[in-house]
Amino acid sequence: MTINVTPHLNFRGDARDALEFYQTVFGGELTIASYADMGNTDPATADHVTFGQVTADNGFSVMAYDVYPHLEWERGKDPFFVSVRGNAPEEIQGYWDKLVDGAEVKQPIGPSPWAPLYGQLTDRFGVTWVLDVAVEYSTA
Q1: Cα–Cα distance between 132 and 83 in angstroms, integer?
Q2: DSSP state of 17
Q3: CA 53 to each of CA 43, 95, 97: distance values in angstroms, whole numbers, following the listed order
Q4: Higher pLDDT pick, 89 / 75
Q5: Is the dihedral angle over the CA atoms 84, 66, 53, 135 positive or is it negative?
Q6: Which of 33, 41, 54, 102 is geometrically suited to a Cys-Cys bond with 124, CB 3.0 to 4.6 A?
Q7: How is 56-104 classified by DSSP, letter by letter?
Q8: What is the pTM of this model?
Q9: How far is CA 29 from CA 18, 45, 55, 67, 70, in A?
Q10: Cα–Cα distances in angstroms (integers) from residue 87 to residues 47, 90, 118, 135, in the given order
Q11: Do the beta carbons of residue 51 and residue 83 sit within 8 Å?
Q12: Which residues pair with 11 in a beta bridge?
């Protein structure tokens, strides 16, 4: 069992540009899945990033997405999540079960269209965590 902890940056329409920029700075592989890739055909957001990441052999890793249009978002407010991604559902569930104590659950943990297990919460210290089981994405 392995897990990775990665900063997960939050944008509104700029995630693709940010990820492409970070790739030029740190190198590595760029992966992007758009809202359209997930079935959203709204022309205003279809090309926005629902999942994106840059990972490099030197250990650099960052994830990013464009906050869903129906969610409140303000530049600089809640600019990131901490992403805990693993390959063993029981391990991720175990972390969730401990972090949820005193937390505000934003997305209950369970299957999602993009991961076999996904959940989001803000812990009692005000830190927002995203926990999920990894799936393979093709590179952009």
Answers
A1: 8
A2: H
A3: 23, 22, 26
A4: 89
A5: positive
A6: 102
A7: -TTS-EEEEEEPPTTS--BTTBS-EEEEEEES-HHHHHHHHHHHTTT-E
A8: 0.74
A9: 14, 24, 5, 22, 30
A10: 28, 9, 12, 8
A11: no
A12: 66
Tokens of 48: 């926005």
Rounded to an integer, what distance in angstroms lies between the CA atom of residue 73 and that of residue 69?
8
Say how far apart CA 42 and CA 8 lie, in whole Å: 24
Residue type, 131: L
Tell me which amino acid residue 75 is.
R
Could you report the per-residue pLDDT of 97-113, keeping only the tens digit for each?
999 999 999 999 999 88
Tokens of 31: 């992966």
3-state SS assignment for residue 53:
strand
- Hey, what are 33's tokens? 């899945």
